[in-house]
Amino acid sequence: MEDGCTEHAKAIKPIDRKSVHQICSGQVVLSLATAVKELLENSIDAGATSIDIKLKDHGAELIEVSDNGCGVEEHNFEGLTLKHHTSKIQDFSDLVSVETFGFRGEALSSLCALSDLVICTCHKSAAVGTRLVFDQNGKIVQKSPFPRQQGTTVTIQQLFYTLPVRHKEFQRNVKKEFGKMVQVLQAYCIISTGVRINCTNQLGQGKRNLVVCSSGSTSNVKENIGAVFGQKQLQSVIPFVQLPPSETVCEEYGLSYADLPQGFYNITGYISRSDHGVGRSSTDRQFFFINQRPCDPAKVSKVVNEVYHMYNRHQYPFVVLNICVNSECVDINVTPDKRQILLQEEKLLLAVLKTSLIAMYSGNVNKLDVNQTLQDAIGNIRNVSSDSFESSIAGLTNAFDKGTLSISKLREAFSIHHKTQSNSQHAKLNKGHIPSPSQKTLQAFFCVSSKDQNGVSQTVPCTSPEKREPLTPNLSQKNISFESDCDSGRVTTTAPDFDGDPSIPEILSNQSSEALTDSPDSPVDNGEVGPPVVLDNPQNMKSEFKEDGSESVSEKGQLYIDGCIPNSKRIKMQDNPVPIVNFTSGKLQADTVDAPINITKRTVPLQFSMSHLAKRIKRLNLQQTEREESEKYRRFRAKINPNENQAAETELRKAISKEMFAKMEIIGQFNLGFIITKLDSDLFIIDQHATDEKYNFEILQQTTVLQGQRLIAPQTLSLTAVNECVLMDNLEIFKKNGFDFIFDENAIVMERVKLISLPTSKNWTFGQQDIDELIFMLSDSPGVMCRPSRVRQMFASRACRKSVMIGTALNAHEMRKLVTHMGEIEHPWNCPHGRPTMRHIACLDMISQD
C-alpha cells in the first residue's frame, strides 16, 4: 500500500481539442440516418420548399443535401461549423419556446470531425454564391465564388473515415444503415406539408434510382402518405378520432377522472383498420410525432399495438399520429438525436389513446349481416310473442332492416323478454288463464315441466331467484333453512299435490352443495335415504298415510318429507335438533337425537428422553448439510415442468454440446414414446417424435426449393424504393422460396417490380404478405437464408407427418439414429411447434444408496 502511495501519480491534463471534438462528435452522429436527418432538418429550418438528397453507394461514398432555403449570410460563414454556435437560441431559457428542429449547433461541427465537409450557399442578398471547404475542426480552409441559385448545398464525403473501427463497420452494414435512413426520411416526408423531398441513390457509375419522394404541392398529411406509400396504403387506413378517457381506463392508469385537464393533448393522424389482412406483418410503418417532430415514444407505441392486437392478433397497424401539446410541457433536449422526448401528463396521453382506439375498433366488430330469411324468422317471432316482447323487439326490427345488428343489443332484448314473459306467465297461471296455442310454444321454452303424483305433466314458470315465491307462507326458520341455486341451470321439481290443496308448498329438489358440506356429520348424498325432516304448517292440515309412506301430514300440521324423492339432496340443518318421525301404528312419535354418550378416558404414559431427541436432531441436521453440499455440484436444476421449459433449455444449451449426443448411452425406450439415455452420471428423457420432427424440419428448411406457379399476368407489388433494393439484392433467396420477379428500370417508383411466379404446394398458397415478411427479415439479415412464417408452417406440417410417431416400438439402432441426429441440427431443444425434445431426469450420483 505504501509502495503504491510513493509512486508519482500522473498529472491531470486537458484532452487536446481535436480529440475532444472527435469523441463528442461520435456521440452526436451515430449512423447514416443521423447524418442525413441533421442535414434535412437544417434545410427545413431554413424555410426550403424543395430538398434534394443524393447518395452514392448508399451513402458510403457521398451524401449531398441541396435546398432552396434562405441561404447563409457572409458574416455567419466563420461560425457555421463551430461547436455550439447557433442562431436558434441565445440562452437556456429559450429551449422552452424553440420551434425549429435544430437548436444546439452540433450537427455541422460533428460532421466536420467525422468526414470531409463542403458547403455551397447563396443568400438572397448576395450577388453570387460561395463555396466553403472546412477542416475537421470546423475552420474554413478554402473560400471561393460558386454560381448557384438561392439556397444551400452540403456535401459529405467518406463518412466516419476519421474513426477506423466505425468506418469499417459502417461499410460492412451500409445496406442496413441505408434502410434505416430511408425509414427516418419517410417520417419527415409525411409530416412536412408543403415541402418536396426527393432522395436518389447511385451505384457506381450507373443511373440514379429514386428512393423516396414527396409532393411539395400537398397541403395535408394524408396526401403525403399516398405519395410515399402509394394509394393502396391509403385504402386501408382510417382517421384517428380523439375521445376523452373513460373512467375505466383512468382507473387503470391511476388517474382521477374528475380532475383531468381538458384539451391538454390534441391528437391527429391515421391508423390501419382492424380487419384481418389489412395490417402489416411488422412495425416498419409506424410513425409518431410530437408537435410535428418525429420521435420514438415507446409507451405510446406499446399502447397502440396492444389495443390493435385485441382486434387483430396476428398483424401490426400502419400508424401516423401527431401529438400536439404546449411546448412548455415537452422536453426535447434529452438525447443528441432528439428522438427521446419527455412529456408532462404522459399517463393522460396513454389513457386518451387507449379509450379512443377501443372506441374506434369496437364499433366495427360483433356485427351480423342479416338476410331476408332471418328477417322473416324475426317477423314470425313477433307474431307469436306477447305485447311486452313486441315493445322490446321493435327497436331491433329497424336494425335488421338496415342489414346489421349488434350481438350485445340482441342479447339485451331477449333477456328483457325473458323476464317480462316469465312474470306475465306466472300471473296468468295464478288467475287460471289458459294460454293460446301460439303462446304455448314460447311458454314451453321459458318454463319447466314436471309431473304430479298421478303422472300428469305440470308447467312451472322458471322465475328469477329474486322474484321466486317462498316455499311456504310461514316457514319456521328455527328448524330448517333452504339454499337453492336455480341460476346454475339445473331443473327444479315440485312436491306432489296433496289432494289438490294449493296451499301446500313446493319442495325444491335441487339444493345447494353447501348444504352437504356445512356440517361434518352430514354424509355425502349417495342415494341412501336420509333422516326425515319436519315442516311446520300454520294451517292444521290433515292427510291420510299412503301405503308406500311417501307423504303424510300430522294432526299438528307437520308435513313429512321422505328422503327418497328422486334426485333429492339433503336439506341444511340448523343447530336446533329436529325430532325424528317414526311410523308406528299410523301415528307420529318423536325421539331425541344427539344424546350424550359417556366415554371412559384412559391415561397412557409416554417415554421421553431429551438426550435421545438431541441426538436425532443432530443426525438430521448432518444429513441435511450433506444433502445441501452435494446439491451444490448439480448441473441441472430445472424440473420437468411446462412452466420451466425455458430454464431447462438454457441449462441444456450451457451443459450439452452437439458432440455429446453421439456419446450418450442408450438405456432403452419408455412407454413407446420416449428414449432414455445416459451421459456420464446424468439420465435424460428424449421425445422420439419431437426430436425426429425437428430434424426433418431443419432438413426441409435447408434443402427444399419450392416450385413456382407462373402467373397469367404480372402483378405489381407497390414496393417502396428501399424494399425494391432489398428484394433485388436477395433474389436467390426469393427464388428458393418460389417467388420470381421482373424489373422495369424505366417505371416510376413502387411500380418497377412485378411478380410473375408464386410458390404453390398442394393446398398451401402464398402471396404478397409473404413477400413483405421476407423483405422485413432480409433487411435485418441480408443474404441469410430465411423462410416466411407460412412456409415454416407448411414444413412443420410435413415434418410432423413423416416423423416417428408416439407408440412406435424402436430397436437400439433406430434409437441411436434419432439421438445422433440431434447433434446434427442447429436447435435440437424443441420441435417446430414448441414442444421440448429432451429433459434431464436425474443424476445417478445424487440418488441415495440407503
UniProtKB/TrEMBL annotation:
Bias kind Polar residues: ranges: 473-482, 508-520
Any one Gene Ontology BP term: somatic hypermutation of immunoglobulin genes
Region annotation Disordered: where it falls in the sequence: 454-553
Catalytic function, reaction form: ATP + H2O = ADP + phosphate + H(+)
Chain ranges of the MutL C-terminal dimerisation domain: 666-810
Keyword Repressor: no
SUPFAM superfamilies per the UniProt record, alphabetical: ATPase domain of HSP90 chaperone/DNA topoisomerase II/histidine kinase, DNA mismatch repair protein MutL, Ribosomal protein S5 domain 2-like
Protein name: Mismatch repair endonuclease PMS2
Lineage: Eukaryota, Metazoa, Chordata, Craniata, Vertebrata
